[in-house]
Amino acid sequence: MSSQVSMSSQVSMSSQGDVAAEPGSAPAAPSSCSSLSSSSETEATIFTVTVGATVPTGFEHTAAEEVKEKIGADARISKDRGRIYFPITTDKLFQVHLLRSVDNLFVVVDEYDHYLFKESKEETLMELQQLAATLPWTNALEVWKLNRTLKKKKGHRRGGNASKPNKPSGEEAAGDAEQLPQETSASEDPTKEESAAEPETCVPDASEAPPSKLIKFRVTCSRAGDKHSFSSNEAARDFGGAVQELFQWKADMTKFDIEVLLNIHKEEVVIGIALTEESLHRRNISHFGPTTLRSTLCYGMLRLCKPQASDVILDPMCGTGAIPLEGAIEFSSSFYVAGDNNDMAVNRTVNNVCHIQRRRADKGSASGLPIDTVQWDLCKLPIRTGSVDIIITDMPFGKRMGSRKKNWDLYPSCLREMARVCRPGSGKAVLLTQDKKCFSKAVSRMGGLWRKLHTVWVNVGGLHAGVYLLKRTGAEFGQTPEDVYESRGGVNAQGEDKEEEEEALA
């Protein structure tokens, strides 16, 4: 091809089956470049488009419920985990940016459930080049223009953030060795980053892009599947070159106006245009810690426990306060107590709360938040017995924070103290941890106080973790064998605990 454009991409391989059907065709006349860059706007016509959203892996159903609740649309969960799709009319486009469970948004240009890739790499890449000219670009580009008028100007996008709509958190499915591209940020534990391949990036030749055109673009390809004869970089390069020839846009890897997404998951192909510049999960936190959770994951955990008006909700290991902050903003009729034994963590939480309050005050909203912050010993909480309705927290994985060995003592002690302050019979706990074996053993030991209701498997920075929903039993604290757990650690259980610790470290 005479004018190629180099695109950033990430490669994700999986051990999956072959593809098996012909792609459909939906030819339409593409919008011209002049119509995109024109300053005069024609009167908008309301039409329906399909919007795709990346969500925390494992919380696809939660995101679909929120879309139904707030937008009234039925969302379809993709076979590619971490994505949902739903229809929306253009007059309601602003509502999708208000969703709390989605990381990134894009408008779908076209999609194929069963795309038959050629065995030859050359034939496949040639087919991708030809595909660009047959796609129905018009409505998607109109939505892109409308979207630009809805959001505040934040300057040019950085290449590191702009590709996120195409990269949901990957998770290893049952019996599947698949790894999907994983976003990493300062908000997550550096030790929890997924070991995905680095982006394949080539420097574009500026001489091949017409310098007179105002519209700048790039193509980002995300590919999952080991039956493809091509790399994601090759697909992005050849497809992007065809897009460039079609619209006469200028290729720019960092200061681009439009990001075209080419999502290939086994035999499923989705072409889209990004609607978000950076992930929406960065909305609350200004002071990050070593293991700060995404706000979208926090929202999913909160929805699991269904907060009610006047509920007292406790996060005994709050870190930077991501969970109680998200709750105080979205479920403001409850009251949140955030605490940690680390003074730096408490300071970060206070700073984050103050930041949100200032931001709300600047916008003319009520600045107060139903949240308080305390420093404490999480195994000796200064809280009255049976006075908390919900406990929700991110427990130490034993990677970046704490250690696997310490978790064998910490988890049972925490669960015991949580049971003391939680209301018998009605109290709930939503706990996130990657140390699944240790946690399961601790819950088993505290069986008289806690009953496990549900588990959501999630991906946290490339680690397979569990979000556990527990229900407080009706047993009165102080009258079950679990209440004396600490005393049994001395003699009777010492050998058993040592054996379990060695097992965990193995």
Structure at a glance:
The protein is an alpha/beta fold and 506 residues long. It has 14 helices and 16 strands.
Report the principal-axis shape: elongated
Order of helices and strands: EHEHEEHEHHHEHEEEHEHEHEEHEHEEHH
Strand content: 15-25%
Number of strands: 16
Structural class: alpha/beta
Distance between the termini: 54 Å
Share of helix, binned: 25-40%
Q: What is the makeup of the main sheet?
A: 9 strands, mixed
Question: pLDDT under 50 segments (min length 5)?
Answer: 1-35, 37-43, 153-212, 485-506
- Calculate Rg over CA atoms: 25 Å
Q: What is the average per-residue confidence, as pLDDT, rounded to a whole number?
A: 78
Q: Report the total helices.
A: 14
What descriptors fit this protein?
506 residues; alpha/beta; seven-stranded mixed beta sheet; 14 helices; disordered C terminus
Please explain how this structure is put together.
Helix content is 30%, strand content 20%. By secondary structure, it is α/β, with parallel strands linked by helices. Helix 4 (121-134) packs parallel to helix 7. It is elongated, with a radius of gyration of 25 Å. The termini are far apart. 47% of the residues are buried. Mean pLDDT is 78; it is low at 1-35, 37-43, 153-212 and 485-506.
